[in-house]
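Hi V.,

You were right to ask for the full record rather than a summary. Here it is.
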Amino acid sequence: MTGVTSAVRETIELYAELTGRLRLPVAPPIVNAIILPLLFLSGIFIASDNPPGWVNLVGRIFPVRHLVDAMRASYLGIPFHWSDILVIAIWLVAAVIVASRTFRWEPAR
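Predicted structure:
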């Protein structure tokens, strides 16, 4: 459950950061342009047993694949790797640091 909570927080912080930096009507398409390729590269929409090396590398850098692996393991009742939770936690800490330094309630003019 911690992994799911971390992933939700990271997504909310990404939306909040981009919405604060961009004008509100422009933010959702830009966030979707970032998130959708990330989801495809992480094996969310298309499961692949033998992806190309670069797809595997990109999928392992970002937290989405780790979240999916942890959720699949918990759903299937097999032990998950603590390294998946560690990667999600590292991304959460980095997102909190970036958001705390850059987020402003008032939009930039």
